[in-house]
Amino acid sequence: MIKINKFVYKPEYHEEEYASNSYVMSLVAIAVGLPFPIVNLLTTLIFYLANRKRSYFIRWHCTQALLSQLFLFFANSYSFWWTVSIIFTDETVSNDYFAYILTVFLFNFIEFIATIYTAIKVRKGIHVEWWFYSDITNLIVKPKI
């Protein structure tokens, strides 16, 4: 799921810090807005917008963090609204609901652990690529020539 690659250049300390903070933002947002999936996405989006003109290393990691939050936003939003519909309507809890909630919980747990791991490695200047998100990030973020 996670691949460590050699980056094009050795980032400076401030670049490592900003890139690492892009992952930490989503962790901080979990503590603040746990029941509302939009909080994580907005926090990561704001950090991305604030740092999108910085070095390639920072932009790359801000984009990867944003893409992972975007995916989780859709998965978490669906589970949130499904739960709300069960609470406030006549809809009943089904095996499909439990399977989906378990799947979303596992995705969130894996992403949480991967985010902590990636933030630590990136802070040390090690370039970490996540499966699926890194390919999309490579298509979006190009080094400035």
Tell me what the structure shows.
It is a single chain. The chain is mainly alpha-helical. It is built from 5 helices and 2 strands; from the N terminus they run βααααβα. Helix 3 (56-88) runs antiparallel to helix 4. The longest helix has 33 residues, at 56-88. It is elongated.
Give me a quick take on this structure.
The chain has one domain (11-140).
The total number of structural domains is 1
Taken in chain order, the helices and strands follow as EHHHHEH
Mean pLDDT: 85
Rg, alpha carbons = 17 Å
Characterize the largest beta sheet: strand count, sense, and whether it forms a barrel: 2 strands, antiparallel
Number of DSSP E strands: 2
**Percent helix range:** over 70%
- For the largest beta sheet, what order do the strands appear in spatially? 1-2
Class by SSE composition: mainly alpha
The tally of helices reads 5
**Roughly how many Å apart are the termini?**
30 Å
| Unreliable parts | none
Strand content: 5-15%
Oligomer: single chain
The coarse overall form would be elongated
